[in-house]
Fold this protein.
Amino acid sequence: MTHTRGCETLSELAVALVTRRRVLDSDLFRPERSPPHANALACEAPLFFLSGRLVLAAPNQARCAMRKFRHIPDDISEYLRYNPENGTLTWTKAPGSAMRNCLMGEAAGGINPTTGYRMVYFRGHHYGQHRVVWKMVRGEDPGALDVDHIDRDRANNRIENLRLASRGKNCMNGPRRATNKSGYKGVHWHKACRMWVAKISVDKKRLHLGYFSTPELAHAAYVKAAAEAHGEFARFS
């Protein structure tokens, strides 16, 4: 099967697209066997430069949604103490009459069983402790940015395990999807082509990296692209 893994020049890409166009029009891609987006990928997909190569880009249908954020109160450090050894927060005084039973030195908040984040309730609102810790230690509100856990342990709020990240970068730190059957992040089996496909999300677009004979080769292409596009936020498994 003819395929494109990336082209160095526009002329090479043009030849590859024409070849793919002919393959899609052949008996190998009868309507009942070809994916509904195959023709669109062959002649209408936008171009994207990656590693000095031209690759095909398709809209990302699984882009990470933006979440609302709440500013951390400036005086929250007057009520909480941060332990740098384990990343936990404890109360130094009660934050109002509604929580007058809070004891000095008592652990603040708890772990949300749904998300795995440590949360703290303060003046009628819930705040992620990782965001509170960032505010208390760094002296700046994370605002619209996410506070990412480097080791992916959402309960580990030691400051050295936290870093600011855009929502898109934070998504790149996630594991492979539960529906992934290849065993490799960014790789899936293309039934019609009978080859392995590598794709990656960059700037809210799904980029097609090519077709490969083995999942290992496809994943190698993904790893290279992820390292370049996402840097320290890249996760390969």
